[in-house]
Design brief:
By secondary structure, this protein is of the alpha/beta class. It has one domain: Decaprenyl diphosphate synthase-like (Undecaprenyl pyrophosphate synthetase), CATH 3.40.1180. Helices cover about 45% and strands about 15% of the residues.
Amino acid sequence: MGLRDVAYELYERRLARGLARQAAPVPRHVGLMLDGNRRWARMVGAPSVNDGHQRGADKIIDLLRWCDEAGVEVVTLWLLSTDNLARPAAELEPLLRIIEGVVTDLARPQNRWTLNIVGALDLLPGDTAQVLKEAAEGTGGRPGVMVNIAVAYGGRREIADAVRALLHAHAASGRTLEEVAEVLDVEHIAEHLYTSGQPDPDLLIRTSGEQRLSGFLLWQSAHSEFYFCDAYWPDFRRVDFLRALRAYAARTRRYGT
């Protein structure tokens, strides 16, 4: 271990002790935009951008362990957007295999996490959607973090899907469109979101230095705190996660202003 690694380890321990000593508030729900895999691959001279996607996938287990240690209850990981589905097949198909692999690994019996696949799964190849669904089905009731795996996810698509599901539900009960319009409110739509029944995210983290939502959890993030980290996702460390928790703890949350 080099001198720099030792310094980071000492700093990480100090951050963790400081948060524990202050009894700092912990976000119940953390959303993460795992950004920068392709740029990381180019930066390190990897043969393919998919090497960056794989390195990023390998980082997820570490992240979930950090969340367990911190007391986070729900984590939403954005692995593939609806826009990403337009990528060339030479990149998209290996990326789908990587996502299948990481979800299968997270679902293994020795892991603690309950998995929930969210997104427009009908846009995925049928075999990929089946792998993801089957992996998640066997994880219910585990004691660790609830993990939403956002694949083929877009915030606008989620809201449209929620409204569509709401209209179908009311139509099935015999209500007319006019009757639905009379009673429609935000809670009715929220009940049909992919994350229905879960707390909205308290903290959203985006890696790679980009400072925009790009459609991530558009509805649920109305009162979220944001933390933007310069590190590309494959280089994201526990010290970066602790810094995000420290920044969150230092903020005074204001709802509606």
